[in-house]
Amino acid sequence: QGGASTAHGGGPDAQGGASLPQGGESADKVKDFASGPCNNRSMSLSDGPPAMSAAPTTADLAAPFGAFSAILSGWAAAQPDAPAVQDDCGALSWSELEGHTARIAARLAADGLARGQAVAILGTSSVAYALVFLAAVRAGGVAAPLTTSASPHQLAAMAADSGARHIFVDRAKLAELGEDAFPGMERIVLDEALDDWMASEGT
């Protein structure tokens, strides 16, 4: 089961593997990712930075890494209307990806997310999942993907051990676990409540 290439090995359990679409995909295919719940999601990312043509030099390795928010903003400025990420429900352009991750990161910061604190995510691959993963890093936290194949007891233990205050979860998975799952944590339903939960534009 494959997840988005932005996630590390513990990433989301996807119904289908992620794949990269063709770079020439037109901007008119960019749609609202939150248009409604989707089943059997698969997810893909657009072409990102070009592959390196040669091994990095000593100067390359000595150069400081760019700030994560600056990298996203740079790609949003360079190709704002190009599709950046998509699933079976729709897609986001680079400018929308940058804006949404900024709003989610702002809300996490407003809620008191500490640097290095975990943000738990439980669900299948989707645009919303990718947004939360990227926003957690952008806010200075750590994305903590929980595997959907774990038992309720295991998920409860993993969530508690992570130290996360927030858990973003698919509606289907929350229905399976029950409304009393993850007591003491703020639960945000990825495929229903994310738009309303994130900070207002310009925050």
Structure, explained:
The protein is α/β, with parallel strands linked by helices. 33% of the residues lie in helices and 15% in strands. The strands form two sheets. Strands 5-4-6-7 form a four-stranded parallel beta sheet, with helices on both faces. Helix 3 crosses helix 4. The protein is globular, with a radius of gyration of 17 Å. It starts with 42 loop residues before the first strand and ends in a 6-residue tail after the last helix.
Q: What is the structure about, briefly put?
A:
The chain has helices at 58-62, 68-78, 94-110, 127-138, 152-162, 171-177, 194-197, and strands at 43-45, 83-87, 90-93, 118-122, 142-146, 166-169, 186-189.
Using DSSP, what is the number of strands? Answer: 7
- Report mean pLDDT, rounded to a whole number: 80
Structural class comes to alpha/beta
**Unreliable segments (pLDDT under 50, ≥5 consecutive)?**
1-35
The Cα radius of gyration reads 17 Å
Taking the alpha carbons of the first and last residues, their distance comes to 36 Å
- Proportion of strand residues: 5-15%
Keywords, separated by commas or semicolons:
alpha/beta; 203 residues; four-stranded parallel β-sheet
